[in-house]
Amino acid sequence: MFRITYLVRVFCEMQQMTWEAWQEAMQKAKSIVAEIRREFKAYKETGDAAHKDKADELKRTLPGACFQAGDFAVSIGTKKYNRGKRGRWREMRYAYLNGLVVIDVDHVDNPRELFERISKEHDLKAEGILLVYVSARGEGLKIVFKAREEWSNLICQQYEMASLLGILDFVDDACKDSSRLSWLTGPDDVLYCDTKELFNVEPTNE
Predict the structure, then answer these.
(1) Nearest-angstrom CA–CA distance, 143 and 145
(2) Alpha-carbon distance 127 to 125, whole Å?
(3) Strands 86-87 and 75-76
(4) What is the DSSP string of 7-50?
(5) What one-character DSSP code corresponds to residue 176?
(6) Which of 16, 59, 132, 142 is 20 to 30 A from 100 (CA-CA)?
(7) 14 within 8 A of 7, measured Cβ to Cβ
(8) C-alpha dist (Å) from residue 30 to 85, 183, 191
(9) DSSP-based three-state secondary structure for 137
């Protein structure tokens, strides 16, 4: 079981995500994601930036998980929103890596088709992939996998796995920040999940 942290307070304070918290977060995200995709679709159809701004505003209300950091050291906040307060603030310098890596796949016309291609060409479990889900706008994938010792740091991990899967052209390298949040989406957007390794929960046949 890997330790995964998630956002629990408006001031970017983090705590460990349990299986129950994961389920609750996905249910919360489901209706928000539907609104985000409606607004983004309207933006693409009309070109009205107000729809894009609304989609981005809604996106920031989604539950957020930090798949690459298993914990954050307690520190004293220095920013406007947390100055002088003690907490497990989501800052890279206080992050403890947990052995997971996230690939952020962007600008894909049909992410579900891309997943089907990847899953046909590769044994996901054998490659160490633990989670794949459709991103908030519906035009990308989040791929969470186990780091490999021979692949060095986070950006190298992403590059090597993306090359292996044939998706390098779609990768956003911003996930090299170990404290970066991944916005969660609804349960219907989860295309693959190894619940045993991620949450110590046996998979079901549902």
Answers:
(1) 7
(2) 5
(3) antiparallel
(4) E-STT-BEEEPPHHHHHHHHHHHHHHHHHHHHHHHHHHHH--HH
(5) G
(6) 59
(7) yes
(8) 32, 11, 15
(9) coil
The closest alpha carbon to 173, from 156, 148, 151, 150, belongs to 156
Could you please report the per-residue DSSP string of 59-93?
HTTS-EEETTEEEE--EE--STTTTT-EE-B--GG
What confidence tens digit (pLDDT) does each residue in 81-94 have?
889 999 888 889 99
Express each pLDDT in 151-206 by its tens digit: 988 889 999 999 999 999 888 765 578 889 999 999 999 999 999 999 988 876 55
Cα 96 from Cα 5, distance rounded (Å) = 10
Residue listed under structure tokens 């930090």: 66
Q: Are 109 and 135 in contact (CB under 8 A)?
A: no
